Amino acid sequence: MKSLTCFFALILLSCNTSNCPITNTKGYPKNIKINYLVDEVVSIESRNDFLNFLETYKNILYPFYEIHDTLNLDSKINNIYSLVDNIYFDSLYFDVRNEFGNKKQLFLNLDHAIGIYNSTSKQKINPKITLLLSGFYNDIVVDKENIVLGVDYFLNKENKFKPRDLPLYVLERYTPHHMTSTALSTYLSQFNIVDDTDKTMLNEMISFGKLYYVVEKLLACEGQNIILGYSKDQLDIIEENEAFIYSFFLQNELFFKEGKLIKQKYLSERPSTFEISQSIPGRVGRWMGWKIVTSFMKKSTYTLEDLLKEDDYKKVFYNSNYKPI
Description:
This protein is mainly α. Helix content is 48%, strand content 6%. The chain folds into 2 domains: 159 residues, no CATH class; 120 residues, no CATH class. The longest helix has 18 residues.
């Protein structure tokens, strides 16, 4: 995978419809456009076919395959085409078709989520969602008008085909159940305003926390652990130790640390946050950012759009009254 643009974690209708129904499908889709290219990719039989395919969807496929100029273009095309022209591609296609063949179910939750966001936002968003069989070239690439998904990345964990360039603890989040929240958070990250002059841990914690909070509110059917990118057991462990983790951050004065290495320990992908405990999973600073934002929003009149545009992280922190001790 050349570019991992997503932080965490489309989904099939895995929610319990008796608890969280999305039943209004009249006029569906209302808020997104659907572009299903899985079948078209597998029908490619030659390099010329592939070139025509790239040219037909140039506006979305050039960014996805990172074709930015004509420098070494032939070599670049050959490398990409080799992923399609191999003996395993048909088998990969059938696995994707079996998992993601029901296009209506596949897009329904995302269409509903975008509708909720647009209901209170001034800037309306109506992305086109493209599903592509990429041969494990890339997982997600977005711009303001597009979400392009290499859906082969999101096959079940037990599938015989999985990307080889990701550690196992990251692959745990590359499943059908994580695809909606991953796609939505990656897309909305473009609208998440960040104060680039603020290099503190708190700045990044709140930035992640805002995205988690917005995605959670838009995907009401989804479990918090899926949105946060944890297993249920991992989230239970963190929640049970919330006061201890918060005390650890206070005692070690972590909130306003600015060093890259120290921030990586608490914000980056790791199997565990060893500094706190072997049992505490990685990215715990992002989780605490979500807890702070959630506390802030309990008394706030912000819309979800307002929250994403808020770049004063000290304001969010001090007005959250977050003190789990």
